[in-house]
Specification:
single chain, 39 residues, mainly alpha, 0% strand
């Protein structure tokens, strides 16, 4: 009972009020990190 071995159907994250969440697609991780620094 409850061994937790099933495949996840979705991911969740707790985002508190006042926190800004960004999602980037179609770029490498290196480019995304540089864009954060350049802001």
């Amino acid at each position: 009972m409850g061994s937790g071995k099933g495949s996840p159907e979705y991911w969740v994250a707790v985002v508190k009020p006042g926190r800004i969440l960004y999602e980037m697609g179609g770029v490498t991780e290196n480019i995304a990190r540089r864009k954060w620094v350049l802001g």
